[in-house]
Amino acid sequence: MISNPAAAEVTVASKLEALLHLQQIDSQLDEIRRVRGDLPEEVQDLEDEIAGYEVRVGKFDEEIAGLNDQIKQRKQAIKDADGLIKRYEEQQQNVRNNREYEAVAKEIELQKLEIQIAEKKIKEAQYQTEQKNNDISGTKQRLIERKKDLDNKKGELETIVGESEADEKKLMDQRNKAVKPIEDRLLTAYTRIRGNVRNGLAVVEVKRDACGGCFNTVPPQRQADIISHKKIIVCEHCGRIFADVEARGE
């Protein structure tokens, strides 16, 4: 069965018209979002940075708690060693020969060595605790500064969003309606092209004999094919979809 050429032309023309309408809506949305600039990304980056600082402070707190436990254990070990030394010194008073005396003296020396090691470990842990407290202080200061920056950025963004929120919602409603008549294959291609070009233009017209997206020259015969609306034609240079050829005044 042979399809009606006129119906095919109308179908292609309708598809191009729908795509161009969607592009016009998306371009208006792009402009609204362009005014916001990098603020959304800056807000997100600051939120991520703040979360990182908070995790770091929490980690420092855990490490300090661990060091304090070590200090407590070392102090108890010193106390225990002191108790043993006193007991050994009392035993020395009651030894029966030099051999027993030397054995007890050796135990006393071992406990004194344990005390020296424990005292050294305590000093190391105290130094580490001091360093980590300094790190916490610096991190908390940066955290305060970043939170101020975040509040400022959020305030700027909320102001800009507030000014354009109604227009954006209206356009999004229009967009939801505009995509319905577009077949999935074309919509996928449109979305892909928009993602690959800097200005977001996936559907363009030929203006002054050039592609409205990349500005490369479009030959007359190709322009004639575009005007005929018999098939979807894309730019040979940038891949954008040609919707039509802009009429030029005499």
Written account of the structure:
By secondary structure, the protein is mainly α. It is built from 5 helices and 4 strands, in the order H-H-H-H-E-E-H-E-E. The chain has a 4-stranded mixed β-sheet with strand order 2-1-4-3. Strand 1 and strand 2 form a beta hairpin.
Structural class: mainly alpha
Strand content: 5-15%
Oligomeric state, counting identical vs distinct chains? single chain
Q: What is the number of strand segments?
A: 4
Q: What characterizes the major β-sheet?
A: 4 strands, mixed
Helix content: over 70%
Q: Give the distance, in angstroms, between the N- and C-terminal Cα atoms.
A: 44 Å
Strand order of the largest sheet: 2-1-4-3
Number of helices: 5
Low-confidence stretches: 1-10
Principal-axis shape: rod-shaped
The radius of gyration over CA amounts to: 39 Å
Q: How are helices and strands ordered from N to C?
A: HHHHEEHEE
Mean pLDDT level: 91
Write the SSE topology:
Layout: H1 5-36, H2 39-92, H3 98-179, H4 184-196, E1 203-207, E2 210-211, H5 220-228, E3 233-234, E4 241-245
Parallel strand pairs: 1-4
Antiparallel strand pairs: 1-2, 3-4
Name the descriptors.
four-stranded mixed sheet; mainly alpha; 5 helices; disordered N terminus; 4 strands; 250 residues
